[in-house]
Amino acid sequence: MLGHGGMVAFDDQTDMSHMARFAMEFCAEESCGKCTPCRVGAVRGVEVIDKLMASESSQKAHAETLLTDLCETMELGSLCAMGGMTPYPVKSALKYFPEDFGLSRQVSDDV
């Protein structure tokens, strides 16, 4: 999935955790408010990404699990494409750029 309906290109210096946060923040600001997964989920997504970035390594796994679960809820429960597709760039950033979130693991198909 390519972001919010378009292709976005970054150089190799871009922090993908910030781009993931921006995707959630954009959704939080643009949400029409009709469905809870989008209206509340995007706001909580920003908070969880901030928590993930600020947490100690021992707490990162919990924040990552929470973010993954939140993304799944948004994907499956949102009424519109914006809320349902916002998690795609977030999940992609977690999968392919875990080091930008302070996570140390190999790329896997689990995310």
Automatic annotation (TrEMBL):
Its cofactor is FMN. It comes from the Bacteria. Transmembrane segments: none annotated. Keywords: Iron, Iron-sulfur, Metal-binding, Ubiquinone. One of its GO terms (molecular function) is metal ion binding. InterPro entries: NADH-UbQ_OxRdtase_51kDa_CS, Nuop51_4Fe4S-bd, Nuop51_4Fe4S-bd_sf. Residues 17-62 form the NADH-ubiquinone oxidoreductase 51kDa subunit iron-sulphur binding domain. This is NADH-quinone oxidoreductase subunit F. It comes from Enterovibrio nigricans DSM 22720. The lineage of its organism: Bacteria, Pseudomonadati, Pseudomonadota, Gammaproteobacteria, Vibrionales.
